[in-house]
Specification:
By secondary structure, this protein is mainly alpha-helical. It has 17 helices and 2 strands. It has one domain.
Length: 402
């Protein structure tokens, strides 16, 4: 065997996760070096990330609220220790951390631990991949939304880790029921992860369906108990269209361009039209095959994206949950039927949407939003197909003897 053949063979057998890890490591090292030589605000800005000083602004948001709570101040009304005086918009359960003494001095350590947990979870989520696939993940992990989540030390990284473990344990009988515990915990921590219960569409076990119902019931009781806090959380959450995604974002942009566009009515009608389109597509195309655990991860990711897209504007860092769709898309991309092109097309769409998800590219705002709506329609399509698979499985079980 020639030297080139040996090199090709070794390269082909390399785990692509190392390529993704190398890209992310090189990216962060370059940011650190350039930031030290100039300033981090301008370096991050050129990369599409709005950097705030002091660093890890979202983790500091939480640790400052803990200090306010410990000082007897209601952080939902006022957070005097936060550098930007941002009132809390997290569920009150986070304030229990004040009892163990966490505060602003722990911000950097906590943010670094979250980043490490996020990247570790990603390595387990993707499994062994080719180098080419690793480069795809590397681009996605270096995109503005992913880097914004890391740069801010955002709590969504905790949710990402919990949902990753939930998705990976779902298909293992010995620990599968722990996935519902993790999903319920994630929903308690940030509410929107309740959309991740879409994983129940992959459920075929009666006991699992019971646990799904219990988890949703616990969440419903929890929401009722904190209903007063939820009003504060909604009021304290800023809606900034330039660095957000959601059903209202495109219509808010059109309205800001002096177009006579009814934002609320228009966005709701667009959601209905998108769902109808997804229903039509699902009725005329071949139903996709979902593998394990990639299909389970896709169910979680599609539920999170579709649910949050409809509910309200979300900051771009929440686009990291689109990473849950990529393993199944890559699997489809390796097929020899029509879904080969579906997989490749939506990997491209998601990648471009995440690369453009930044206030740095205002000229691409409308195209970026069109891509976001395309992803929404796709996620609804996935959920419809999963719902049909689940209903067929349940119906066939009921019809089976005994």
């Amino acid at each position: 065997m020639s030297v080139w053949a040996k090199l090709h063979s070794n390269f082909k057998g390399l785990d692509g996760r190392w390529a993704a890890a190398g890209m992310v490591t090189g990216f962060l090292i370059a940011v650190y070096i350039l930031g030290k030589q100039t300033d981090f605000v301008s370096v991050w800005a050129r990369l599409g990330v709005e950097h705030l000083l002091p660093s890890f602004a979202d983790m500091r948001f939480l640790t400052s609220a803990l200090e306010a709570h410990r000082a007897g101040v209601n952080p939902y009304v006022s957070s005097p220790f936060d550098p930007w005086l941002r009132p809390l918009n997290y569920p009150r359960v986070w304030l229990t951390l004040s009892a163990i003494g966490l505060g602003a001095r722990h911000t950097v350590v906590l943010a670094l631990v979250l980043a490490a947990g996020f990247y570790t979870a990603m390595m387990f989520l993707v499994g062994r991949i080719t180098v080419a696939q690793g480069l795809v993940y590397g681009v996605l992990l270096c995109s503005p939304p992913a880097m914004l989540a890391v740069e801010r030390g955002n709590i969504d990284l905790v949710i990402f880790v919990l949902l990753t473990v939930a998705a990976l344990t779902f298909d293992y009988r010995t620990v599968s029921y722990a996935s519902y515990v993790l999903l319920t915990l994630a929903a308690i921590l940030k509410l929107y992860p309740v959309c991740g219960f879409a994983v129940g569409l992959r459920e075929r076990r009666r006991r699992g369906l019971l646990l799904l119902a219990v988890g949703l019931a616990v969440f419903a009781v929890y929401v009722y108990c904190i209903r007063a806090d939820i009003a504060f959380m909604v009021a304290n959450t800023p809606q900034i269209k330039e660095i957000s995604f959601g059903r209202r974002v495109l219509f808010e942009k059109l309205a800001s361009m002096k177009l006579a566009v009814p934002v609320e009515t228009g966005s709701r009608l667009a959601v209905v039209a998108s769902i109808i389109m997804a229903l039509i597509i699902s009725s005329v195309v071949k139903r996709p095959e979902f593998s394990s655990p990639a299909g389970t991860a896709m169910a979680v990711g599609a539920g999170i994206y579709a649910g949050t897209f409809v509910a309200m504007n979300c900051f771009n860092y929440r686009l990291i949950f689109l990473l849950f769709l990529v393993p199944q898309l890559l699997a489809w991309g390796g097929r020899r039927d029509g879904y080969r092109w579906v997989g490749k097309a939506f990997i491209l769409i998601i990648t471009v949407a995440m690369l453009l998800a930044s206030a740095r590219f205002p000229q691409f705002f409308i195209p970026k939003e069109i891509l976001n709506w395309s992803v929404f329609i796709f996620c609804v399509f996935v959920l419809i197909c999963l719902s049909r698979d689940a209903s067929l499985a349940i119906f066939s079980r009921w019809r089976s003897p005994g």
